[in-house]
Amino acid sequence: xxxxxxxxxxxxxxxxxxxxxxxxxxxxxxxxxxxxxxxxxxxxxxxxxxxxxxxxxxxxxxxxxxxxxxxxxxxxxxxxxxxxxxxxxxxxxxxxxxxxxxxxxxxxxxxxxxxxxxxxxxxxxxxxxxxxxxxxxxxxxxxxxxxxxxxxxxxxxxxxxxxxxxxxxxxxxxxxxxxxxxxxxxxxxxxxxxxxxxxxxxxxxxxxxxxxxxxxxxxxxxxxxxxxxxxxxxxxxxxxxxxxxxxxxxxxxxxxxxxxxxxxxxxxxxxxxxxxxxxxxxxxxxxxxxxxxxxxxxxxxxxxxxxxxxxxxxxxxxxxxxxxxxxxxxxxxxxxxxxxxxxxxxxxxxxxxxxxxxxxxxxxxxxxxxxxxxxxxxxxxxxxxxxxxxxxxxxxxxxxxxxx
Length: 404
What we know:
The protein is α+β, with helices and mostly antiparallel strands. The chain folds into 3 domains: 3-142 and 395-402, Porin chaperone SurA, peptide-binding domain (Triger factor/SurA peptide-binding fold), CATH 1.10.4030; 166-257, Chitinase A, domain 3; 261-363, Chitinase A, domain 3, CATH 3.10.50.40. Helices cover 49% and strands 21% of the residues. It contains 16 helices and 13 strands. The longest helix has 32 residues, at 366-397.
């Protein structure tokens, strides 16, 4: 260490407020900051130490002191990175903490003060905690990559708790000698279930379709063939037709907590320019809509006109998407559009759009939830290792002096 740094450290220690030094003392110097005896005592008050012997108490004290050193290093890192926590961010976190405890912010404040905890100090500590979390988020969490191979391997070799997916299902089964029918014929007969007037069903009176209501079924307890055919349903909440030991079967989901709507959407995006204002852009999109409704392909116009070049290469297709994956204005138009319909021109922050809704379906998200859980677990493991290694490097590079 050079002389200037040593002098700076001595200056830091020397010029601590005299009145504070009478009551407090420095236990560790961490670069240009210090850990005080009062901070260590406060940490020790947060843990149960009554039943610890002298050796255990010393070990606990060293662990808490190490935590304070790491927190100091993180605070210094957050300062170097320019991380700030606004009053709005602080209040939002405070509301979340209070809400998780079934309290209002005011009730949380009263609860803290009833425990002789300074509310101002609590806010200061919370602000510092958010800063430290943000250091880890920017350094590791956002950068942690989990490969497809890792996800597949984890799901194969680890038991993830079953999702409590529940469904209310109507089971429609053709009761007959299965040799009398093939799958194509069974599809035609069961399609009559979807016909509210029953015209299709009347065409095949010889076939008895038995309907059974399965109440509040846990999806993971259903037979595999049922689970497989409940992964994707059509827009009317019906499964594909499949064959079981009982007969040809089609399932209708009346209600469920694990189904989400998906939309197969294409769009065209146009933006204003010096030559074309909003009115000219809308007129162009209205003309596209008219041409498509007259029988021309939407994809042709998307390829020619759309400023969203990625989707334009696919004829404007965004594939199957959920309402959560698009901005508010797009979402509202999408969920209110009829299948095979072309929307009116509408504006988002990206520009002017029209969309074509090719189809709708419902998807069982049980496997998606499990997959996301696997990704979260794998990310947490990687982040934990990276954090530990990074903190170790910070300590190696830091000036740390224990003051007797």
